[in-house]
Amino acid sequence: MRRSVLAGVGGYLPDRILTNTELAGRVETSDEWITERTGIRQRHIAADDQKTSDLAIHAARAALANARMDASEIDLIVLATATPDLTFPATAARVQAALGITQGAAFDIQAVCSGFIFALATADNSLVRGQAKNALVIGAETFSRILDWTDRGTCVLFGDGAGAVVLRAEDVNDGRGVIATFLRTDGRHHDLLYVDGGPSQTQTVGHLRMIGNAVFRQAVEHISGAMIEACRLGNVSLDDIDWFVPHQANQRILDGVARRLQISPDKIITTVARHGNTSAASVPLALNTGVSDGRVKAGDLVLMEALGGGLTWGAALVRL
Ligand code: UT7
């Protein structure tokens, strides 16, 4: 059976760490409020001269090294971001050039915090159809650039970073690879989480705006539904899953989903305390954390999920 096998994973976080206490010196908030309401203790912030593509290139190189593959073998790059270097060309094009890749296609996907799941599904479809052999799937963001640093309701939540996986098309008979993906968008909620700028509407970059508690109310229900749907499509039960690798928006969302689906917290990879919400980068960064520290191993059944602006949400079931 032709499958997209996860051959490698990598991540990159900028050096600069911004703590809750530092933020409390900028806006009316406290370490206690942020920790209790979100679980976030710190986030990484890109240097002034670091672009989203720079973060993506670091993560892509790490994933290639982990896969023991050369960049020249890659013939597809799908990069998920809501914070591209420029309006166009795609940030993926810059990543392709920096890696010295001169074949195949490279393009961006825009599904905000769900972007990595959408990118993974897109790359998987190409690989299974035989359009490409080896894909880099990247989630990379510099949300620090679009935050309103005077809005305590949003500026404390997000961080910068990038994560990447290498997918390799293989004929497998041992169940490895991407088993199922499930994607959803409900555009009726486009104004719950958005950026108030853009080339067509305001000709400005704009700032992130969110009605946080309204997004929160949607999150637990849709994420739980997507996880159940991906399991149904993959013909497995939630009990079969070895590791849950969720989007890291808020510890209370992770706890709510775990309670609803009766998942043991020991099976959930959690990075929200150290990374904050890195949007499209959060799922591959969490996967990289679990693989690097030895918890997530070859043969494990992994369920990833995310929800973000759009609203978009989805889940991906993969056997490593
Ligand atoms: O990744 C994309 C998807 N995004 C998400 O999933 C985010 C979902 N939403 C959330 O995580 C939560 O809604 C937040 C963390 C954003 C907010 O938590 P909440 O418990 O829903 O708080 P709230 O928005 O209902 O606000 C409660 C209070 C308000 O004060 P009043 O009106 O009750 O006096 C806010 O002004 O908390 C206040 N508040 C803050 N206080 C101190 C909001 N932000 C802060 C802050 N520090 N940083």
Short description:
With 320 residues, the chain is an alpha/beta fold. The protein is built from ten helices and 13 strands.
N- to C-terminal distance: 15 Å
The poorly predicted ranges are none
Number of helices: 10
What portion of residues is helical? 25-40%
Number of E strands = 13
Mean pLDDT: 98
CATH topology of the largest domain: Peroxisomal Thiolase, Chain A, domain 1
Which small compounds were modeled alongside the protein?
A: oxa(dethia)-CoA
Major pleated sheet: 5 strands, mixed
How would you explain this protein's 3D organization?
- With 320 residues, the chain is α/β, with parallel strands linked by helices.
- It has two domains: 2-171, Thiolase/Chalcone synthase (Peroxisomal Thiolase, Chain A, domain 1, 3-Layer(aba) Sandwich), CATH 3.40.47.10; 177-319, Peroxisomal Thiolase, Chain A, domain 1 (3-Layer(aba) Sandwich).
- The protein contains ten helices and 13 strands.
- The protein has helices at 20-24, 31-38, 52-67, 91-98, 115-128, 152-155, 212-234, 251-261, 272-275, 282-292; strands at residues 2-12, 16-19, 42-45, 76-80, 105-109, 134-142, 160-171, 177-185, 193-195, 208-210, 243-246, 301-308, 312-319.
- The strands form four sheets. Strands 1-7-6-4-5 form a five-stranded mixed β-sheet, sandwiched between helices. A four-stranded mixed β-sheet has the order 8-13-12-11, sandwiched between helices.
- α4 (91-98) links the parallel β4 and β5 (105-109).
- The model has no long low-confidence stretch (mean pLDDT 98).
- The site of oxa(dethia)-CoA has 21 residues, from α2, α6, α7 and β12.
- Residues 29, 33-34, 37-38, 113, 152-153, 156-157, 212-213, 215-216, 219, 249-250, 253, 277, 307-308 line the site of oxa(dethia)-CoA.
